[in-house]
Amino acid sequence: MRKFKGNVTTPKGFSASGVIAGIRKKNKKDIALVYSETPCVAGATFTTNKVKAAPVVRDIEILKNGKPKHAVVLNSGIANACMGAQGVTDDLAMATATAEGLGCTADQVFTASTGVIGQPMPMNVILPGIHEACISLGSAEEDGLNAAQAIMTTDTVCKTVACQFTAEDEIEVTLGGMSKGSGMIHPNMATMLSVVTTDINIDEALLQEAVSQVVADTFNMISVDRDTSTNDTFIVLANGLAGNEKITKKNKVYEDFVLALFLVCKDLAMKMAKDGEGATKLLEVKVRHARTHEDAVKIAKAVISSNLVKAAFYGSDANWGRVLCAMGYSGGEFDPDKVDIYLQDGDDRYLLVKGGMAVDYSEEEATRLLSKEMMTFRINCNDGYEKATAWGCDLTYDYVKINGDYRS
Amino acid sequence: MRKFKGNVTTPKGFSASGVIAGIRKKNKKDIALVYSETPCVAGATFTTNKVKAAPVVRDIEILKNGKPKHAVVLNSGIANACMGAQGVTDDLAMATATAEGLGCTADQVFTASTGVIGQPMPMNVILPGIHEACISLGSAEEDGLNAAQAIMTTDTVCKTVACQFTAEDEIEVTLGGMSKGSGMIHPNMATMLSVVTTDINIDEALLQEAVSQVVADTFNMISVDRDTSTNDTFIVLANGLAGNEKITKKNKVYEDFVLALFLVCKDLAMKMAKDGEGATKLLEVKVRHARTHEDAVKIAKAVISSNLVKAAFYGSDANWGRVLCAMGYSGGEFDPDKVDIYLQDGDDRYLLVKGGMAVDYSEEEATRLLSKEMMTFRINCNDGYEKATAWGCDLTYDYVKINGDYRS
Fold this sequence. Notes:
By secondary structure, chain A is an alpha+beta fold. In chain A, 33% of the residues lie in helices and 28% in strands.
């Protein structure tokens, strides 16, 4: 099992493109296409927000239609959310134009949009853009990068990764992924779009099970600002070209695939957390020895989401009281008098709190550790055997600046 | 019924003081005392955080002891939270010293602390401070103001108010209140301390019922940063000196008292929201015509708490998509296609969204309205008869600055 630089075009049989349509800006790639001529099975998860963008509503529908899938077309700039019947029409037009360009049917094409809510889609530039995306498809690494760049909005870095493992019979199985998202990100998906391609041969129901399991521990464990968006979409396409015997039960290859998918999604999730709007540092919260997994998840999410913890992290202030305070309102069960809190840097741990109270630690050393680009709060509840890990970032002046005038 | 300038010394028979003990700063009043020689009944609510500061744990205990109460002693600077057995000892010492100074017993004295979590109480300065507070008691308006100033932390304005109404027999009933709180404030109480005094004659159980009812619609409907603190305390003392016939059932005087208490608490809650850390503007969210009261509360709280809504409000950007998005993840039930959203300025309403979609409004006019010191988002769900109102503030650079180095 190895994780490496790569993207959606790394697995066998996938091509991609990213083009400039001019949706909101003149010189930014804003339409991405991911395609497999070989029919794919798909697994996906979507936003839990009650207000769902048009593409999300349609994707949920076609995910269940039992037809082989061929492509995902995505645009950045306009979210196609809160647009009523017009939004539905425009979204279907995107899928139809893509299907025409690729020679399949619209219900074999997933769509995804991200950007400003409540503004109409400029179909006069989007449709020509889709046409160009179809004829620009390529399977080189650069083509996958173009697609990854085309879905960026306030992202400052392009997020891609690949992973490979050997299945039985020395068959190589490859996964490649891309994602975008840096604001409106909160546990349970947020303004994040992510597509993972893989050449594994797998039953569609099992693929969906793997996707749901992995998303719970990765994308659903990051928070930038607690806002869950209308457009979150995560789609996995599997075309079977690796040539492994089709996975129809939870065997060793399935387990390996779940681990590989976890590594891909964790990598993308951490990249999104680190690229949180205005963020300067990556914060990881590891909750260990909790009573139940659910308690561990609640505690980890509350700490990673606390504005006060995030602002203190920005100031490199070891304000562990705010960590304990966030645990206290998390809704997770724990005994405050049993809690130990460490700063963890790789394998090194620096104890701040023992049994719910501060130990005699050095503020200087704690500040030095918190000044690093990535730091972990390790919270030991000493009250059970369950665990959870969450990722987030610091809260900075720039977060406010970016979101005070996003639309302008 | 009239609301006016006044504070905890305004009702008959109450005295107060605020003194400089030197807990964390040399020249800041940091110990407050509120006292009634006449025995009082009490009603109170406290933080729901699982991690409760020592004074909160003790107050919850003595609230139920059935004894008449005489005083509340409060300190700012150190929260006396996460201090284990030492915290319990120090808190009891505060109550005991106060009781000795006043000639009552420790279990007739409420305590409250606010400030840094996890640091020991400097009892060497606190106990002399309490002694001074006892001998400095006075019933002038200035004495009440001194107390209100002594509980301030990052507050930039001193928060007090009074209210008076006429009970049967032309008896004047008076309420006076003070509060502090500008960070770690979120629905369900936060780092807020508030004391309201009143000379009404009322049964203790009915007082508690009035307190719980009013808190739900006022203090629990404000949010500055979604962090619920370890120390939140709201205490009402009623000494009966107004001379009204003791309220033992929900008659007209009781209803008037609930309204007066609501006006006092709403005034203090709005002052806290407006004085949110780093805030420049007060935001009100009125949810109307919701299916149930619970739905209305969930929706109002989600919108007022959204970092994205708050940052857009700071930038005077009419980003209604973020309002609808926050509604969508609130957990409250509503039909997105029925929602109307207005900017409301006094009695004037400016329509932004009709039936879940933008109308053709002027961005310039919306920005002009959002630039005001106070603005209301009026959200009409058009789906029922229930309502709720919440208060909050904008998210600014200064919030980050204040919380990036609060302890230094």
